[in-house]
Amino acid sequence: xxxxxxxxxxxxxxxxxxxxxxxxxxxxxxxxxxxxxxxxxxxxxxxxxxxxxxxxxxxxxxxxxxxxxxxxxxxxxxxxxxxxxxxxxxxxxxxxxxxxxxxxxxxxxxxxxxxxxxxxxxxxxxxxxxxxxxxxxxxxxxxxxxxxxxxxxxxxxxxxxxxxxxxxxxxx
Length: 172
Description:
Helix content: over 70%
Largest sheet: 2 strands, antiparallel
Distance between the termini: 42 Å
Radius of gyration: 17 Å
Order of helices and strands: HHHHHEEH
Shape: globular
Strand order of the largest sheet: 1-2
Structural class: mainly alpha
């Protein structure tokens, strides 16, 4: 829902799409959290449940960040780079767990942080006039969504380095 709404902002500029995207990003986090809490509280947590929890998360990451790349003020290449890095961040955590390390969810750009950046960019775009949604840097304009995707990309790289270091310690 969030990814589609983001992509639609470049087809027809309507503030409702920004609200739907912000709501969709937060709904994704809420559903993921509730799913895990219900599984643990009911004693139904399982390896199969983990699998069915992780795969939709990666699809959701791709939908949101690719949609952000196509959004008004976004950049398609940045959307795909953010998608790859978000998925790679989750992969590093999963690979560490497979190798015998505890799950490592550190940031600064873990899933909830990435969705927060997207949500803030969407809410900013909802309430701020369109001409103010582009930042002028030297001789080129950077849209709010491109700025958000750049922030996510840099944060994911830092997160990857931190996670790799934290996962490697107990494996030595």
